[in-house]
Write a structure and sequence with these properties.
- The complex is a heterodimer of chains A (570) and B (257).
- By secondary structure, chain A is α/β, with parallel strands linked by helices.
- Chain A has a single domain (2-565), classed as FAD/NAD(P)-binding domain (3-Layer(bba) Sandwich).
- Helices cover 22% and strands 21% of the residues of chain A.
- Chain B is mostly helical.
- Chain B has 2 domains: 1-30 and 40-48 and 231-257, no CATH class; 76-221, no CATH class.
- In chain B, 40% of the residues lie in helices and 1% in strands.
- Chain B is built from 10 helices and 1 strand, in the order ααβαααααααα.
- The radius of gyration of chain B is 23 Å and the shape is globular.
- The chains are: A alpha/beta (570), B mainly alpha (257).
- The interface between A and B is large, with 85 and 78 residues.
- Strand 8 of chain A pairs parallel with strand 1 (36-37) of chain B.
- Chain A: This is Putative gluconate 2-dehydrogenase flavoprotein.
């Protein structure tokens, strides 16, 4: 195997996590190599991006599933089978990773999230946590993480206004909120009338031209309506390619190698020595030695790479021992309602990925849970992300899904519906986890990651609760008809729900119950840092990227410290 | 009113809300003051004096031959079944054209000829097992193979039930055949009838509303049904306005410089 000269740091995957780490470390003079399995991406690629079929329905920016996928089963009694086609979530690929195709909805998790177990017990007693629910504190508080939230928001240029029900901020958002559309105004007015606390959704689509602290200038969002699943041709949506990656490159200390698929972390005596990767254009296997290995390849590949490398202790659901693969969680997205307005037409074809208004009255522990059969909650939002015509065929419940009536109704209501949706949190359970599949392999012959997951009573109760609240708001907004999606059903891998997969390499303050400390440094290998939503011990009722960004900045600080002094940072 | 007349009527509507990328750039006058240009604006500003093709509403639109309307995959009898079936899924009515006039069957034909028809980006490795419903498609057949089998079975079912081929059935009989597939009332061992119906239905919607470059949504008439403006570069001017903004749609062709 070809062995390359050693570098200070090797990064596995160049998305938000990898880009943030690269920019911070290279600014300090460290030599960093970024290995990215996919291809180069740049803003100029998106001049033909307003193509709903190619990007939203043929998954142009996503991982090629013919080469690699995940396998899925609802529980351990069922045979896991491969996710052969896209559905429930979308896995990013290429420079920028999933950071290219996000909507830009950028939240901070709540103070409650970081101390969820102790705060739940403190307020409701330990019987409030049902058997098997494996929530735990994160080993860090909101106050400790606050400076890093602030830093990420300034890098990305978040446009927003104060959320009255969130943790305390050290500074306001770097940009004013996005424009207020007529439907957002309706939502805000209705929510205020109901004594709720609406605010404009914090957005990584810039409300105005902005130059960030690293000197990167970007143009304002044009509300073109093509964000999620698409790249931004204006560079207005913050993504790693237009923020952190150019900063790292400019130092001269960052080398990106695309088409380089990292397959193993090489290690000896509890420390990594580098990585082995395949140049996918030639098939050659190459060793890249490094002092520090940073794993930033999304939840599934973070877990898979550790397990395939036999690094860390694999999680065993029968004993609850081990940590790699533990606490896989997701998002409860079905709690929503759609309002049909017969006498109004909205410009909902226009929009931006993070344009909207929302409220947190039913999120976290912002309300009393004494009389409900679930903990936590979810953000409720009315977004205007741009309704595109293949996806947007709203019909009242009971309408056939094809034929004359379907066509008439879907055409009639194309610009006459508004959706208010809950983004439910997802609690971990002892029997929800990731491990290696024993049958199905990727294109290299390595085992695929296997997901064992289903919705629980907690999720069903939460979805029903949020859906009802969403319906109430739409009624107050004056909809002629409101259809409420109250039944969550079992977890189904096919309908798209959310690309907010979390857990598997979770953080904490105890090596027995977590894989990484609060600098995302592995307990079992001090020169390996594992970054991403894989570090979340549970998922909150928010989009995860703001919290991923904050944790990445904290990890960068930790890596710099470790580079200077060595040893465990905990 | 013919489709041509409709198109012309739309084109005459006020178009000042629609902003081309070039106009946006000129008007906005961005100065890239930072060290690094995060966006594409800089390279766009270098585009020379070429003007974007402007639709001239006064010029009579003679319809040239559409060379895209030929078959890449289907045999002609298959094509006719798909054309008839998709028209039932998305029929012409007072609001505008149906699947047939929109070219949906050509769209499906062209899609089956490429990556989608070959399931090129799907995981198709064995072993194959029948899974739970929540595990999604677990078959070994590719979409083009599913179409081959399903179209033959639609024909067989039509013959056995009505003694006629699908294309020769009345619209009500065609609906009954499609419903029998949708509800798995047809018993097949090779493919899932409802699975096929779901593919056919979603491909019909895609063909009605995808950019016309793919062969469906002919003349952007699918978009016009819904007053969807296609892909405009910017909605800054209308995003916070109360009144509904009607504008003639643009396709990706308008953005090729």
């Amino acid at each position: 195997m070809k062995k390359l000269p050693k570098v200070d740091v090797v990064i596995v995957g160049v998305g938000w996590g990898g880009g943030i780490i690269a920019s911070e470390l290279t600014k300090k003079g460290m030599k960093v190599v970024g290995l990215e399995r996919g291809k180069e991406r740049k803003t100029e690629d998106y001049l033909m991006v307003h193509d709903e079929l190619r990007y939203a329905y043929r998954y142009e920016l996503m991982q090629d599933l013919s080469k690699e996928t995940i396998t899925f089963r609802s529980n351990e009694r069922i045979r896991a089978l491969p996710m052969r086609q896209y559905g429930s979530f979308l896995i990013g690929d290429g420079i920028g990773g999933a950071g290219v195709h996000w909507n830009g909805q950028n939240y901070r998790f709540l103070p409650y999230d970081f101390q969820i177990k102790s705060k739940t017990i403190e307020r409701y007693g330990k019987n409030k946590i049902p058997d098997g629910m494996s929530i735990q504190d994160w080993g860090i508080t909101y106050e400790e993480l606050e400076p890093y939230f602030d830093k990420f928001e300034k890098t990305a240029g978040i446009s927003g206004e104060e959320n009255p029900l969130a943790g305390k901020r050290s500074d306001k958002y770097p940009n004013p909120p996005m424009k207020t559309t007529p439907s957002m105004k309706m939502f805000i007015d209705a929510a205020k009338k109901m004594k709720l606390h609406p605010y404009i959704l914090p957005s990584a689509n810039l409300s105005q031209a902005y130059t960030n602290p690293d000197g990167v200038a970007r143009a304002a969002c044009q509300y073109c309506g093509y964000c999620e699943r698409f790249g931004c041709e204006y560079g207005a949506k913050a993504d790693p390619v237009v923020t952190v990656i150019p900063v790292a490159k400019k130092t001269g200390n960052f080398e990106i190698r695309t088409h380089s698929y990292v397959r193993r972390i090489l290690h000896k005596g509890g420390k990594a020595t580098g990585v082995m990767y395949t140049d996918v254009t030639t098939g050659e296997e190459i060793e890249q030695p490094a002092d520090i290995v940073v794993v930033t390849s999304y939840v599934f590949n973070n877990v898979r790479l550790l397990l395939n490398s036999k690094l860390g202790r694999p999680y065993d659901p029968s004993t609850g021992k081990g940590v790699i693969g533990k606490n896989y969680a997701y998002q409860v997205m079905r709690g929503s309602a759609i309002g049909f307005f017969d006498n109004k037409e909205f410009n909902t074809f226009a929009g931006a990925g993070a344009l909207g208004a929302c409220l947190d009255d039913y999120n976290g522990d912002n309300f009393d849970h004494s009389n409900v059969n679930f903990i936590h909650g979810g953000n409720i939002a009315m977004t205007q992300t741009g309704l595109r015509p293949i996806a947007n065929n709203p019909v009242p419940k009971g309408t056939p899904s094809w034929g004359k009536e379907f066509k008439a109704q879907s055409v009639k209501y194309a610009n006459r519906t508004l959706t208010v949706a809950g983004q439910g949190s997802s609690m971990p359970f002892r029997h929800h986890y990731l491990d290696l599949d024993s049958v199905y392999k990727d294109v290299f012959g390595d085992p695929l990651i296997r997901m064992t997951f289903d919705f629980e009573e907690q999720d069903r109760q939460l979805a029903k609760f949020l859906a009802t609240k969403c319906g109430d708001i739409l009624k107050e907004m004056g909809a002629n008809r409101v259809d409420i999606n109250i039944n969550l059903g079992p977890y189904d891998i096919m309908p798209y729900q959310s690309t907010h997969n979390t857990g598997g390499v979770i953080m904490g303050n105890n090596p027995d119950t977590s894989a990484v400390n609060n600098y995302l440094q592995m307990w079992d290998a001090e020169n390996v840092f594992v970054i991403g939503a894989s570090a979340f011990p549970h998922n909150s009722g928010y989009n995860p990227t703001g919290t991923v960004g904050a944790l990445a900045y904290r990890a960068a600080e930790g890596i710099i410290k470790y580079h200077q002094k060595g040893g465990s940072l905990a | 009113m013919s489709n041509d007349e409709k198109t012309e009527g739309r084109a005459k509507e006020k178009t000042d809300v629609s902003v081309s990328r070039r106009n946006f750039l000129k008007k906005s006058g961005y100065v890239l003051g930072g060290v690094l240009a995060g966006g594409v604006i800089g390279s766009l500003l270098n585009v020379g004096g070429k003007k974007p093709p402007l639709a001239n509403p006064e010029q009579p639109t003679s319809a040239p031959s559409d060379y895209n309307q030929a078959l890449m995959y289907f045999k002609q009898d298959q094509f006719r079944i798909v054309e008839a079936a998709t028209e039932r899924i998305f029929p012409a009515d007072d609001s505008g054209p149906g699947a047939k006039a929109l070219g949906v069957a050509f769209f499906i034909d062209h899609q089956l000829a490429g990556d989608w028809g070959f399931n090129a980006r799907d995981y198709m490795q064995p072993p194959f097992y029948k899974g739970e419903a929540v595990q999604g498609y677990q078959g070994r057949l590719k979409r083009r193979e599913i179409f081959d089998i399903a179209l033959q079975e639609m024909q067989n079912y039509s013959q056995s039930k009505y003694k006629k081929g699908f294309v020769d059935l009345t619209p009500e009989q065609q609906d009954a055949v499609l419903t029998a597939f949708e509800k798995d009332e047809v018993k097949l061992t090779t493919i899932s009838p409802s699975g096929f119906f779901r593919i056919l239905r979603s491909a019909t919607i895609e063909g009605a509303y995808a950019d016309p470059l793919y062969g469906g949504n002919k003349n952007m008439d699918g978009w016009k049904l819904k007053n969807y403006p296609g892909n405009q570069m910017a909605y800054m001017q209308i995003i916070d306005k109360d009144e509904f903004a009607k504008m003639p749609p643009k396709s990706l062709k308008d953005h090729l410089h």
